[in-house]
Design a protein that fits this description.
By secondary structure, the protein is α/β, with parallel strands linked by helices. 39% of the residues lie in helices and 22% in strands. The chain is flat and about 100 Å long.
Amino acid sequence: MISVQNLSMAFGPKVLFYDATFNLNKKSRYAITGPNGAGKSTFMHLISNQQEPTEGQISLKSGERIGWLKQDQFSYEDEKVVSAAIRGNPDLWNALHVKDKLLSQASLSEEDCIILGDQEETILLYNGYDAEEKAEKILLGLGIPEKQLHLPLKELSGGYKMRVLLAQALFNDPDILLLDEPTNHLDMPSIDWIEEYLIENYDGLLIFISHDQGFLNKVATHVLDMDYGEITLYSGGYEKFKKDKILFQEQKKQEFQKGQLRIAHLQKFVDRFKAKASKARQAKSKEKMIDRIELPDIKNSSYVEPHFRFNPERPSGRHVLEAKALTKSFGEKEVLKNLTLNVQRGEKVAFVGANGRGKSTLLKILMNQLPPSAGTFSWMQLAHVAYVSQDHYDLLDRTKTAWQWLTDVSRDRSDQEIRGALGAMLFSGDDTKKSIGVLSGGECARLLLAKVMLDRANVLVLDEPTNHLDLIATEALQRALTNFPGTLLFVSHDRYFIEKLATRIVEI
């Protein structure tokens, strides 16, 4: 369905990938993996013809339509749900918008009438007078309640907003569906829903980017891995890909070593006998053999893993936290009711539940950022708590550089310790001088975790700690938290992360 031939992409001296050749087939689901900055989103732009490759080409069959679910669910907050779905056909949506705007005027000029006629042609071309009915049918099919179809998008939950954007991507009946981080901001029920929909209901070609390992394991039938400046196609799910990649790299290393030994053996013969007339022909022949030996290209991986280390300065007491009948209301909306909880040293407690049920609110209460409406809680003696909120900018100062902020909030740590923590989180050289306001989501997450490392706390309270981290960083964080000897309280919708880490689950 999609043919990729000798595809290369570079921005100035930075080469994202080169000479990629493969075919992508209908009814297959391809996960694009790779570190941040490897070119995953760029590849989607190339498929949708929004960017031109440096070299090579991507060929689609004539007439095939593309639907793209982007990470822009907050772009249409004031738009009605149905209208946001119709945006899936931008030409039709624009024609309907221009027509409505013209007809709202008290009178029309001759030029206005010509423009109106052009819009009518576009609307007829795309069967636009049935567009709203079609959009409603798709939205209802995706589980949007009928009473919400004509509400502004901002009144919907994160899970329903994602479904509206999926309706937008599906509105044009796409043969190819592109999804960019489809599980971001979703709770577990919504993630379960989109997995089932993509597996059971969509039979076109799916290409997606995700940092949710559980989602990758469930949905992907193939993996397109961006590493070493190449795009390599693997068959099978994500877990199989990880094993296959390790095996593939080991094979390349062994081939390289065998090739080097063969070359060294032949070169030894050439050096010894090339000056002897009786052996000169053999030496010449072996020189030609050396020239014909092709060594596999062994390069360093593009994946760079941060090094998380959470080492408490001292242990806490056996009893860490006691909460009794905690209740929290916002006006008439009660999000927590009579929550009683006791946490012991060494427990790793995951708080799970649908969006809006009070998980983040609970953590903010425990960190004294919100007062409870009723009930009490207390941290026990020797509990030293470090916290990371879901919204990184709650804790970060955008006006400062990474170095300035970390120095200010870690005053009892030496410059050497701060430099070490930044280096472990992949901030080096000029990166430490970057303004926090221009850092990526992943960089902000790593900067906050650098502070947590320097805090040397024996209790960590983390709200969605894997948000914005790539797969390599997420796996490194999970390993470090598993080895953390203190107590962990965390909120997450990442099922794989929870499964690997939690010793106890509290569902709210």
